[in-house]
């Protein structure tokens, strides 16, 4: 039997608002439904960050928790090493900010980020809260991406990062260019909570296909996921 696919859930003790830890469970379940053995490896503030896992997910956080996570990822650069060798990384909300060059908290403090994404984040006048719908820019994704956003930070991309999607409804990166999220190498960042992968199974399968080194995965016929997607697309 081959080794299980190992999915890193990075710092769920400080990053994981709105059930973002569910993204790791969705990845594991979509593998198991295809009879591929998989396990979730939780990496907490008590652990160094391993660089050997197959893919990684990070969730959102409040400003103070986000700062703790940033320091930990700088001290133990396993995530950076893994991304350099092409392991997929999914970063939600505060995690986009943490993986950038720097972010400014709503209290006005500028914090150096991990530097994996060419972007910076500064607080905006109005907090972005609510349902968001976007049109993906990434090849392999054609269904709208939906989620719930709640962030004060607005994110400006540099030339090495591109937006994951264009906002149809909601705020997204919030700096006036209509962009949502960031893609750079094997790292995908998005402001979508949900958890995002429960609501956007195409994105889940794209991450899994990349982790397995496949062009794409055979589709799963999951009526309940489709029902949830339709319900969320109707939400106002
Ligand atoms: N603290 C960050 C902000 O408000 C991120 C919030 C979140 O992850 N939901 O911009």
UniProtKB/TrEMBL annotation:
<feature type="binding site">
    <location>
        <position position="127"/>
    </location>
    <ligand>
        <name>substrate</name>
    </ligand>
</feature>
<keyword id="KW-0436">Ligase</keyword>
<keyword id="KW-0378">Hydrolase</keyword>
<dbReference type="InterPro" id="IPR029062">
    <property type="entry name" value="Class_I_gatase-like"/>
</dbReference>
<feature type="active site" description="Nucleophile">
    <location>
        <position position="93"/>
    </location>
</feature>
<comment type="pathway">
    <text>Cell wall biogenesis; peptidoglycan biosynthesis.</text>
</comment>
<keyword id="KW-0133">Cell shape</keyword>
<keyword id="KW-0315">Glutamine amidotransferase</keyword>
<comment type="subunit">
    <text>Forms a heterodimer with MurT.</text>
</comment>
<keyword id="KW-0961">Cell wall biogenesis/degradation</keyword>
<feature type="active site">
    <location>
        <position position="193"/>
    </location>
</feature>
<protein>
    <recommendedName>
        <fullName>Lipid II isoglutaminyl synthase (glutamine-hydrolyzing) subunit GatD</fullName>
        <ecNumber>6.3.5.13</ecNumber>
        <ecNumber>3.5.1.2</ecNumber>
    </recommendedName>
</protein>
<dbReference type="InterPro" id="IPR043702">
    <property type="entry name" value="Lipid_II_synth_GatD"/>
</dbReference>
<dbReference type="InterPro" id="IPR011698">
    <property type="entry name" value="GATase_3"/>
</dbReference>
<keyword id="KW-0573">Peptidoglycan synthesis</keyword>
<comment type="similarity">
    <text>Belongs to the CobB/CobQ family. GatD subfamily.</text>
</comment>
<feature type="domain" description="CobB/CobQ-like glutamine amidotransferase">
    <location>
        <begin position="6"/>
        <end position="200"/>
    </location>
</feature>
<dbReference type="Pfam" id="PF07685">
    <property type="entry name" value="GATase_3"/>
</dbReference>
<comment type="function">
    <text>The lipid II isoglutaminyl synthase complex catalyzes the formation of alpha-D-isoglutamine in the cell wall lipid II stem peptide. The GatD subunit catalyzes the hydrolysis of glutamine to glutamate and ammonia. The resulting ammonia molecule is channeled to the active site of MurT.</text>
</comment>
């Amino acid at each position: 039997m081959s080794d299980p696919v190992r999915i890193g859930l990075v710092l769920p003790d400080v990053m994981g608002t709105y059930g973002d830890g569910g993204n790791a469970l969705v990845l594991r379940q979509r593998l198991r439904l295809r009879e591929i053995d998989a396990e979730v490896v939780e990496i907490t503030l008590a652990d160094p960050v391993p660089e050997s896992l197959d893919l990684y997910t990070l969730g959102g956080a409040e400003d103070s928790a986000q700062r703790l996570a940033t320091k930990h990822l700088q001290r133990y650069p396993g995530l950076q090493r893994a991304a350099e060798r092409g392991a997929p990384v999914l970063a939600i909300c505060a995690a986009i900010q943490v993986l950038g060059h720097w972010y400014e908290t709503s209290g006005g403090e500028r914090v150096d980020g991990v530097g994996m994404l060419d972007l910076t984040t500064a607080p905006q006048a109005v907090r972005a809260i609510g349902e968001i719908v976007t049109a993906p820019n990434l090849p392999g994704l054609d269904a709208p991406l939906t989620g719930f956003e709640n962030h004060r930070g607005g994110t400006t991309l540099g030339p090495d990062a591109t937006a994951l999607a264009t906002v149809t409804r909601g705020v997204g990166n919030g700096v006036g260019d209509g962009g949502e999220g960031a893609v750079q190498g094997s790292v995908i960042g998005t402001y979508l909570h949900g958890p995002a992968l429960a609501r956007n199974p195409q994105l889940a399968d794209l991450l899994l296909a990349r982790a397995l080194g496949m062009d794409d995965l055979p589709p799963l016929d999951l009526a309940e996921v489709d029902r949830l997607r339709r319900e969320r697309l109707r939400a106002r």
